[in-house]
C-alpha cells in the first residue's frame, strides 16, 4: 500500500483532489491527512501537484484510494458541492453510478 501524508498548516480549509476520478475532499485547517492507495504492495510513487488553495494527487486508474483526516476515513459526502453537480451533469459512469474514491 502506498501512502502520502500531510498537514494542512493553512489557517483555512483546503481542497484535496484525487485524480483521475476527480474526487474532492475539503480538509480542515490544522488537520493531518493520510492518503492510502491500494497498489498490491508495489510501493508506487504518487505524483502531487501543489496549488494555492489545495493539492492534487494523481493515482493510477483502477486503484482503490482512501483518504483519512485526523485518523478518520473521509466519505464521499465530503466532496465539494460544485464537483458533485459537475459529475452528475456530465454523465454517468460505471453502469450508471459514480466510481468512488474510497
DSSP helix fraction: under 10%
- Tell me the structural class: mainly beta
Task: Sketch the major β-sheet.
Answer: 4 strands, antiparallel
Strand order of the largest sheet: 1-4-7-8
Q: State the order of secondary-structure elements, H for helix, E for strand.
A: EEEEEEEEH
Instruction: Report the strand count.
Output: 8
Low-confidence stretches: 84-99
**Beta-sheet strand percentage?**
35-45%
Mean pLDDT: 80
User: Per the principal axes of the C-alpha atoms, what is the gross shape?
Assistant: globular
Rg, rounded, reads 13 Å
- CA(first)-CA(last) distance: 14 Å
The helix count comes to: 1
Key phrases:
single chain; 102 residues; mainly beta; 4-stranded antiparallel sheet; 4-stranded mixed sheet; 1 helix; 8 strands; 10% helix
Summarize the structure.
With 102 residues, the chain is mostly beta strands. It has one helix at 81-90, and strands at 2-7, 14-19, 23-27, 32-38, 47-51, 54-58, 64-69, 72-73.
Q: Which helices and strands, and how do they pair?
A:
Blueprint: E1 2-7, E2 14-19, E3 23-27, E4 32-38, E5 47-51, E6 54-58, E7 64-69, E8 72-73, H1 81-90
Parallel strand pairs: 2-6
Antiparallel strand pairs: 1-4, 2-3, 4-7, 5-6, 7-8
Describe this structure in words.
The protein is mainly beta. The protein contains one helix and eight strands. It has one helix at 81-90; strands at residues 2-7, 14-19, 23-27, 32-38, 47-51, 54-58, 64-69, 72-73. The strands form two sheets. The protein has a four-stranded antiparallel beta sheet with strand order 1-4-7-8, with no helix packed on it. A four-stranded mixed beta sheet has the order 3-2-6-5, with no helix packed on it. The two termini are 14 Å apart. Mean pLDDT is 80; it is low at 84-99.
